[in-house]
Amino acid sequence: MSTENTETAGSLADRITKPDESVQPATSNGSTEEKKDDGAGVAAQGSSLQEPEFDVEVKLSDLQADPNNPLFSVKRFEDLGLDPRILKGLSAMNFRKPSKVQERALPLLMHNPPKNLIGQSQSGTGKTAAFVLNVLSRLDLSTEEMRATPQALILAPTRELARQIGGVIRDIGQFLEGLTIGIAVPMDPSERPKRMTAAAVVGTPGTVAELIKRRILNPTQFKVLVLDEADNMLEGQGLGDQCIRTKGMLPRNIQVVLFSATFPPLVRTYAMKFAPEANEITLRHEELTVDGIKQLYMDCATDEQKYNSLVQLYGLLTVGSSIIFVGTRVAAAEIEKRMTAEGHTVASLTGGIDGAQRDAVIDAFRSGEAKVLITTNVLARGIDVSTVSLVVNYDVPVVIPQGSRQRQPDFQTYLHRIGRTGRFGRIGVAITFVSNREEWNWLRQIQEHFGCAIEQLDTSDWDEVERMIKKTIKNTRAQAKFATV
Ligand SMILES: Nc1ncnc2c1ncn2[C@@H]1O[C@H](COP(=O)(O)OP(=O)(O)OP(=O)(O)O)[C@@H](O)[C@H]1O
């Protein structure tokens, strides 16, 4: 499994956040603890890598008017049969037009009788809102009793993603009176409530299964089951087993919705069993890279030179927000320690730290208080922080396929990692470090797999590197304006 699995079958430290805790009940002011920007901006906000005169409104509408762009749609949200209070929520979030995946998925999702859906779309194109709109449309909040009855279950691979999705439900549903949201992620057993009484429940699979088993969460009235990052959730053991176990405890006729940017062929076959007779929205792997993300690599002679390159880049990293992906928790801790000792301000988040600390770090990163985040694959997927303008693959993501001893490039993880930048038409830069022939080969395979160009940055001239990155952002932005993704 490529993503660092933070919750295993044995993990009993359950975290349940009642609606009034990390995710607040729907309010009309839409204030959020995990403050998101309004979604209409295109350039990385707060980044001096962007040009200030840039007209973000023009840009997003240009992208949404290009039929070849994943953000394109002919319809308006008003044409999709949504409740006026939900439309009001979208408007408050400044979502003007649906993206392609939202326009295509919503009629399929909201059709009655409900049908299953397997949906694929590039990173940062609004899959979350697509399934959240369906979830909100299907909740019955008409009585006190129903408001306290769990009706929709969304499973995500990590606590950070579960909390983020809870925030999106709250934001879009802010005008739905009585909307209650429960977050079920690992927490101390002493903090567990006796009963989870929220209409929409978002959680990680192990915790949710455990809550159902302990009769804290009543599974009998669930109408919708969503798996976000579904390929990751279903592949391999661990999360996959937990998802199957959980689904086995839910009503048989539940609507199953699977979303991801990636569905490798083997997992897709399995996904079709998990979501029988599903409608499908698919992409070829050559269509998966996002034009707004400029992909670069740096040839570093040694591991030490990798570190030196990172430190050299630091000035650029802090211009916007940046994520540095490393292969292991140990590597993350070492780099953090070394950089901190040398006077740099960096934060780190891995599966090795406790839940409360993880929440504090990701919240600080979202708010911009922490600008450089060192992490493992635990944050490779789904995390949406629109100010991220730079992603560094300090280590090329690799995987050891089952039954093999040979490491291979992890195509899916590469795509998800670089997709933490370039969100919803924004521009971003992804730099991968390679320090030997093997890594260089992996990178070449990644390039071939996605049919994309990954250009070299020359580390012998740092002024040139800086110029190149700034120029890249400018060009990428110009390209993205006429993108044919
Ligand atoms: N119709 C819209 N108009 C404007 N902004 C939108 C719209 N839909 C989604 N967004 C914004 O786009 C960003 C990316 O959305 P989201 O996180 O759902 O992407 P995703 O497709 O799930 O990506 P990933 O595959 O990386 O998980 C979010 O900040 C969201 O608020």
Highest-level CATH class of the largest domain: Alpha Beta
What is the beta-strand fraction?
15-25%
CATH architecture of the largest domain: 3-Layer(aba) Sandwich
Hetero groups in this structure are: adenosine-5'-triphosphate
β-strand number: 17
State the helix count: 16
Unreliable stretches (pLDDT < 50, length at least 5) are 1-58
The main pleated sheet reads as: 8 strands, mixed
CATH fold group of the largest domain: Rossmann fold
Structure description:
Residues 309-465 form the Helicase C-terminal domain. Its EC number is 3.6.4.13. Residues 108-281 form the Helicase ATP-binding domain. Belongs to the DEAD box helicase family. InterPro entries: DEAD/DEAH_box_helicase_dom, Helicase_ATP-bd, Helicase_C-like, P-loop_NTPase, RNA-helicase_DEAD-box_CS, RNA_helicase_DEAD_Q_motif. This protein has 485 residues and is of the alpha/beta class. It folds into 2 domains: 56-283, Rossmann fold (3-Layer(aba) Sandwich), CATH 3.40.50; 293-479, Rossmann fold. Helix content is 36%, strand content 15%. The strands form 3 sheets. An 8-stranded mixed beta sheet has the order 1-4-5-3-6-7-2-8, with helices on both faces. Helix 7 runs parallel beside helix 9. The longest helix has 20 residues, at 462-481. The two termini are 29 Å apart. The model is unreliable at 1-58 (pLDDT under 50).
